[in-house]
Amino acid sequence: MKKHLLLGLHILCFMGLYHPLQAQTAVNPVQPWGSWGILTLVLPGTAEKKWGGFAEVQARTNAVFRQYFYHELKTGLSYDLDRNFTFTLAGGRYATADYKDLGAGPLNVEKRFWQQVIMSQFTHRVKLEHRYRVEERWFRFRDDSTSFRMRLRYRLNAFLPLNKPTITDKTVFLSAYDEIFLNPDGPTFERNRIYAGVGYQINAHLTVQAGWVNQANYNLPAFRQGQFIPQNTAAKNNVVLAMAYRLAHRSGGPVGERLPSQHD
């Protein structure tokens, strides 16, 4: 047990140290900690029933558990090619407001559609997940202006069960990921997101997680009024609380080990 715990801590530290463009100047170096709350309903595919899906609601606050300003509503359809490959089509609605003036309505509302593939690796102890996603994003701002953007995302997620070799009932596990967001129109590195946390799979249906996420946004360098302004980074730390409930197909066989990854 001690050996596995040390291995997990090494994985978390390694992923935490990897932060693209970390040397850039921070725009908001003293931002307060925020919080994310995530509730997910999942219908995973099985060897017999390959189709599945999910629905998720998420809320974020500017400070820890207060100053609400953002929410997401998402749903999607998945297909398991086999145990290691899952394809997903999904969409969602994302609303951002000013926490100081919620009554004025959202600052902007984004509608998003995406296509993704997940490749999972089940080793004896450490489990790895590679997620590739292409997003189409439509924005409507408070002044009725609109815009369209595309984005590419890649996430490497690692899991380490502590008290069992697999993540099944009554399993405590560590989870860590790093995700990069690429914008074809620039800046190429639009965002980087690092997560580290601990979770507990209570039974075949219910999993809870708690952790930390650092999200860094990158701005394009600019040349204004004869002065060069270098690329800047705005980063924010957040507490993450997540709960996922997994449904089961009525006439399907056992699902087996599934990685408790977050759909965000």
From TrEMBL:
<protein>
    <submittedName>
        <fullName>DUF2490 domain-containing protein</fullName>
    </submittedName>
</protein>
<feature type="signal peptide">
    <location>
        <begin position="1"/>
        <end position="23"/>
    </location>
</feature>
<dbReference type="Pfam" id="PF10677">
    <property type="entry name" value="DUF2490"/>
</dbReference>
<dbReference type="InterPro" id="IPR019619">
    <property type="entry name" value="DUF2490"/>
</dbReference>
<keyword id="KW-0732">Signal</keyword>
